[in-house]
Design brief:
This protein is α/β, with parallel strands linked by helices and 571 residues long. It has helices at 72-77, 115-121, 168-181, 215-223, 265-270, 289-299, 322-333, 338-345, 350-367, 401-422, 436-439, 447-462, 478-482, 494-497, 507-513, and strands at 7-11, 21-26, 37-43, 50-65, 84-97, 109-112, 130-135, 141-145, 157-160, 191-197, 234-239, 258-261, 303-304, 312-314, 317-319, 391-395, 428-433, 464-470, 486-489, 520-525, 528-535.
């Protein structure tokens, strides 16, 4: 070993020492803090090699030795009662090399891990492909194994934390930036990202430099091996404005490079999109779901009437708006002709049909801006796709909750089906979805939840990686969380921190999560048995309109091998 640090203390003999955790008495002229990486050694009788034990400090305490009562502290400070200050640190073992699980012996010297010893203690030496995930308490980079992110051995990331404090979405975009810009890891043409923006217009300026980035932040990026800057290749999609026949995207601050999205009546019928109108989790537990599927099958018989605008004709009736389509469905499921009614509604009671219709009619004002045939498709309509740029942002913040569910469900299904037909894992697609508890709640079932379960369980083999975030992991479907190779926790509510879903956090980390400051995350990954506390630098890309540089850092039209996805959208 080279660059071996001097001892900071010795293994404590008054506390039990086990192969998995032990206490260290800290020398009077030294200190240990939470998250310090330490190593110690011991020899085993009958074996020639020396065993190295690496670990992370999880607790630190200080006490008076010789004091018996609380008031003794005053006597000791006045010099009346003799006593010594003793500091000790609890260490959770991360690695034993070679793997002979014996406890460190009391009195063994303990030192901070540096250079090669630090890499061994944190398994970095075994990561042939590693990406920086932040900076440790010692000011040095911390890494994650890319094999557990890109599907080679695992996939998916789950991020939990209080809204507005835990910086969940910011950390998700930092992970993407690290993935796309770490030298020699992921080729730009072999991966892309689909990001759903649900809070303001915060994520619409990822291709703009952040004017508030300080030189100290730039140095942190360089320390991580990254060049600070904005995302190079970004395309943005936003819904059309209400009652706008021109298909103008509904955004306020970004005035260029935004494509509007909507679905035609024909697409709604032929692509079986009706179930996504009923995307709330409780719907699948109601009897009227059989009506949904029956009507969906009948709508597939629709004939394309207007190739330019996407209107349809069903049994001689022309339908150009969502409202007219819903009126037509209502007429059919309430038909006095029993045969026709059963064709459209199945063998359901009138009460079940009425429940279906109430739900369907209530969706019209929320979805009619998204499902329409009054805009010319030619040269204007473009479905949300991820092929035009490396990062695709879908803006949902102006949509009501029900419309957001519809867009997320339909877009995820299209992406999943495209990857299934593609037959290869590459290019990888990283999907960033906040408010995961809304789309995949623990209880109930819905079309979106089924898709997300498919992504969590089969996405790895298809090249789809979910980066999901939520305030409360306890409210998210267990199988989605358990399939996440990386689990990240920011600031937590005290009641939430004590739930079983955070059992991977040691008790001290659970307490610290309730006071964690923005930019501090606890990251658990498969190879390291103890969470790492990371701090990630201030975003180098704009995260809100007032942070953006005047112009994008790099024009898509001028980007190498990246087509301009907005060439068809004037202005």
């Amino acid at each position: 070993m080279t660059d071996v640090a001097p001892p900071v203390g010795r293994v404590l003999g008054t506390e039990d020492s086990t192969p998995l955790d032990f206490w260290v008495a800290v020398s009077a002229d030294q200190y240990l803090q939470l998250d310090d990486v330490i190593v110690c050694e011991r020899n085993v009788p009958g074996r020639s090699e020396t065993i190295m034990v690496g670990g992370i400090v999880s607790e630190v305490r200080a006490r008076h030795e010789g004091a018996h009562f609380d008031s003794d502290v005053f006597l000791i400070e006045d010099g009346v009662l003799p006593a010594e200050v003793s500091e000790a640190a609890r260490v959770l073992a991360t690695r034993v090399e070679p793997e002979i699980y014996v406890p460190p012996t009391p009195g063994a010297a303990v030192r901070r891990a540096t250079a090669e010893e630090r890499d061994i203690a944190l398994y970095f030496d075994r990561m042939s492909r590693k990406i920086p995930i932040g900076i440790g308490r010692d000011g040095l980079p911390l890494y994650a194994n890319l094999d557990f992110l890109d599907g080679t051995r695992g996939a998916h990331v789950n991020i939990s934390g209080i809204s507005g404090v835990a910086t969940k979405t910011t950390y998700a975009t930092f992970l993407l930036y690290s993935l796309f810009n770490s030298p020699g890891l992921v080729a730009p043409h072999n991966c892309g990202a689909l990001i759903f923006n649900v809070k303001g217009e915060d994520l619409l300026f990822l291709d703009h430099d952040n004017i508030k980035l300080q030189e100290t932040d730039r140095e942190k990026y360089r320390k991580l091996g990254l060049t600070p800057g904005a995302f190079n290749s970004v395309q943005v999609f936003a819904p059309t404005r209400i009652n706008d026949p021109n298909g103008t995207p509904d955004v306020a601050n970004r005035d260029r490079g935004v494509g509007a999205f909507w679905w035609t009546i024909n697409e709604f019928c032929q692509e079986e999109l009706l179930p996504f109108v009923f995307a709330d989790a409780e719907d699948e537990r109601n009897q009227y779901t059989t009506v949904i599927h029956q009507v969906t099958r009948r709508l597939q018989d629709a004939l394309l009437l207007d190739a330019d605008a996407g209107a349809v004709m069903i049994e001689g009736t022309t339908l150009r708006t969502l409202r007219s389509l819903v009126d037509y469905i209502e007429e059919k499921v309430n038909s006095e002709d029993d045969h026709e009614r059963r064709q459209w509604a199945g063998p359901n009671t009138q009460g079940t049909i009425n429940a279906f219709l109430r739900r369907l009619r209530s969706a019209v004002p929320k979805l009619e801006r998204l499902i329409r045939s009054d805009i010319s498709v030619r040269d204007r309509h473009r479905s949300i796709n991820t092929t035009g740029a490396q990062v695709t942002v879908v803006d949902l913040h102006n949509l009501p909750d029900r419309a957001q569910r519809f867009v997320v469900g339909v877009t995820l299904r299209r992406s999943f089906e495209t990857k299934e037909k593609q037959g290869t894992r590459e290019p990888l697609l990283f999907v960033v979805l906040d408010e995961l508890n809304k789309y995949a709640p623990r209880e109930g079932s819905s079309p979106i939840k089924e898709i997300l379960l498919d992504v969590a369980e089969r996405g790895r083999s298809l090249g789809i990686v979910l980066i999901g975030a939520q305030q409360t992991a306890s409210e998210v479907e267990r199988r989605i969380v358990s399939n996440s190779a990386l689990r990240v926790v920011g600031r937590l509510d005290a009641a939430e921190a004590g739930r079983p879903e955070y059992g991977f956090l040691p008790r001290g980390h659970q307490q610290r999560a309730t006071i964690a400051k923005p930019g501090t995350m606890f990251v658990m990954q498969p190879e390291i048995p103890v969470p790492m506390t990371v701090e990630f630098p201030f975003p180098a890309w704009a995260t809100r309109p007032d942070e953006r540089a005047p112009e994008p850092s790099r024009s898509l039209a001028n980007a190498t091998n990246v087509p301009d996805p907005f060439a068809q959208f004037p202005g």
